[in-house]
Structures are given as structure tokens and as C-alpha cells.
Amino acid sequence: MAKRLVYEYKDHGFVIDVEEAQNHLGSAWIKSDSREINFGEAIYNLFETLNLMLQLVKNKRMLVNGSLMNDTLFWDIKD
Question: How far apart are CA 47 and CA 37, in angstroms?
């Protein structure tokens, strides 16, 4: 399995979809609809909405690396 994942794709940055991941690793390992995934998707969508608002209003981006209160970075977007 590892050989297929390493050598059958163009590069390691290539993203496979859920169905393909389930084919390689099995549906017991790859979940496509769970409370945790739905929560993560909701947080990601909120983060992306906030970043869009920051970009439009302040011309900035936000990166959270750990704690939202202590590990959030803001930087200016270069024109």
C-alpha cells in the first residue's frame, strides 16, 4: 500500500479524495461524515469567512497556529 501511495502519484503534495483514500486504506480508517468532520468543516468555513472579511476591509490575512488567543498572526497583504 505504501509503495502505491508513494510512487503512483505525481508528487507528495497531490491530494486524493475521500473515495480514493477509502479504496487505499479502507472505510474503517477514512471517515467521510462524522460529527468531528462536520465540526472541523464548520470551523474551517468560519476561519475562511473571517479571512475574506479581513482581506476586504483591512487588506490583511490571519493564521492561527495553536491557541486562538495566543498564537494568532496577522499580516498585511502586499499589492
Answer: 15
Give the up-direction half-sphere exposure of residue 79: CA atoms within 13 A in the CB hemisphere: 2
pLDDT digits (tens, 9 = 90+) for 3-51: 887 888 777 787 888 898 898 888 888 888 889 989 999 999 999 999 9
How far is the CA of 25 from the CAs of 29, 32, 43, 47, in angstroms?
A: 6, 13, 26, 30
3-state secondary structure of 78: coil
Q: Give the span between the Cα atoms of 32 and 38, in whole angstroms.
A: 9
Q: Confirm if 64 and 72 have CB atoms less than 8 A apart.
A: yes
Residue type at 76 in one-letter notation: D
Cβ 64 vs Cβ 50: under 8 Å: no
- Give the predicted TM-score (pTM) of the model: 0.60
